[in-house]
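Lecture 7 notes. Example A: sequence first, then its structure tokens.
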Amino acid sequence: MNTKAILTLLTVALLFPAGVRASETIVWQGTKKFTNWSDVLNIEGSKFSGAKADDVLHLSITVSAGAQLQMSWGSSWTNFEGLGSLGISGDYELLLTTQDVPRLRQGIHIKGVNFTLTAVILKTNDGQYETQAEELFAWQDMLLSGATQGKTCSVNLKPYGGAGWYWPEPKDLSSYGSIVISLLQPAAETMTAQLLYGETSVKSQTIAKGATLCKLTLTSAHKKAYSVNIISEKAQTVAIGSVNLTDKQGNVVPTAVGGFLADAPRVLSVEYYNTAGVRLSRPQPGINIIKKNLEGGRTTVKTLNIKH
């Protein structure tokens, strides 16, 4: 497979970790129906005085057919990336970036059609849970390309489809021993596990047909790792049990990674957009909007800036 195609195949925005405990601040609560685009809810910037990067802005929403959401900020009513307008199927969450925080403090405007808003909540990281940097392989952070998530941590891969993780900031993995990928069922077809690091370097390991374990050995060369993924040339369903880091003695390092959670929200579909709202087949260099439609009607939207 073309190396450049592999390098751009899988990227992921780090999402709010599943199963964590976070303090919540109710910014607004009530019942606001949005039936046409003239319906607007304005929230003053002082309500977001405690917001910081990596916090989550949560909107509790009940939708009807054709629901769309738009959220803008400041006196200019400039849209947040990806929100002008966005089709929604339930609750909406925005992971705040360093750029979003000063925008919130200028006040926000929520508008849209065919939904009812009952609460706006700011979920803050108050140190009660592990940081995102420690959740390298969380199930809910997996990015899919030519693939869909199934039940019980399975991934349905199309020909040359893949699944994996991307870290916007490179991770120094040189002090660890390996990345171990464990499958719940033997691989139906041969696959390739890859670690992308440095500028364009790729470390590959074949996962043979019938195998249930794959190990990517780490060395001093892996100081700037930014992606791990699994790619299959043939269509197959892969049941992934866990992906973990080990130390140099082969012991799993529980504080460095997050294992999969069987009850984590299943991603039904993933959509990619540029800042103009044009849908993309996969993330491209520049700012990407990643929309995930989760089981239970929940939707998350994150932004990812992929350097050229």
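Example B, a different protein, same format:
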Amino acid sequence: MKRILVMIMLMMAVPTLALSQTKQKKADATKNNNSSVERELMQLEKDSAAAALKGDTTLLDRHTAANYIGTDPGGGVEDRAKMMAGAKAGDPKFEALDLDDMSVRMAGKDAAVVTGRATVKGKLKSGMDITGQYRFTDVWVKQEGRWQLMTWQATKVAQQ
């Protein structure tokens, strides 16, 4: 009788253990894929900053969604056309643009939110100095087989 009970318990336990291992493998695969995507998005952020510093709009043009909307630290709102026009005109003009303290949060497999800090030295065409630290939030979506910036928002960090 004990032998039959042990057999029944084993028969019930084996599928449960197998299912548990399958779920763990799927979770590990998702985590590894998310890590890869996180690295890719952080690199895109860094590459975008480097391109902006050089005044190169090629990467910006390729990785900005058609329905992009941005909110600048002064509360101004811009669409893709306005943002691209400003970038092509060299507005703003950066002397330094460093990103750090970045974090990526996945929202499904084709959307992510990147937050971070930008340390900027530069000016707008109007002559306004924009030097300082900013906190930013970027929303990236995977469209047309590549990551594209859908939304950007930045807030200037108050001097302490």
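Note on Example B: The beta strands are 64-71, 77-79, 93-106, 111-123, 132-143, 146-156. The CA atoms of residues 11 and 157 lie 61 Å apart.
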